[in-house]
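Friendly challenge for the regulars: who can give me the structure tokens for this chain first? No prize, just bragging rights.
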Amino acid sequence: MGFYKPITPARRFYTKRDFSALTPGVRPTKSLMESISGTGGRNHHGRITSRFKEVGHKKQYRVIDFKRDKLEVRGKVASVEYDPNRNSFIALIHYADGEKRYILAPQQMTVGDTVSAGPTADIRPGCALPLTAIPVGTIIHNIELKKGKGGCMARSAGTFAQLIAKEGEYATVRLPSSETRKVFVECFASIGQLSNPDHMNVSWGKAGRSRWLGKRPHNRGTTMNPIDHPHGGGQGKTKGGRHPVTPWGQPTKGFRTRNNKRTDNMRIQRRNSKVMV
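First reply, four minutes later:
Bragging rights claimed.
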């Protein structure tokens, strides 16, 4: 974590991430980059469907290998790099057959490390294996929910999940949210905890820094007119005599919005520590 001298009011609370883990003097690989355009929260009709968003600073997308489908081919870590599209660092892998790919970089990954994917891969940070080949108790990340679809759980900075049991065709995984759920044992997962765990402690310091990230000011419902929000209007601060709701009347505190009964039987324990029956 980096700090600054308080030479201005914004600098007093301005902190930055520790980039000492990155490889100095390395530019991103152009063949693994794509151009992207921001939506500003608008759909294809041009209407705002996600409020308080904007395009933010211009950036290019790094193509990340979430599937880890290059099996039984060893690769060497060429560099650990910054990715403006995510809060964890990424690693450039040079495989033995000449191909290059970006993967999510776990902690303790350095230049020169060897990684591989497949049932016979080593149990070391950065390697990807099916859950059948991973010992119980191992720290994992980038976990698949469907075989071959690519990792979709535990992908942000400093997060990890834990494999706590295997029985039959399902494995039990404790997710970063403390939820416990079943995952098909043929699904792939990567070993280790993801890099940049101090991201959660960064203080943006000023409003403009959030604008760079594409975040517009988030105004409260109580500051609006009655036509714009159920909390709007009135003399002084008031919520209109009702519990907090969205502009469309949906409760916002303690109201469960999950509506996916198809996968309810895969959840063993919710994140609020209530056992599913």
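The radius of gyration is 22 Å. Helices lie at 207-212. Your move, everyone else.
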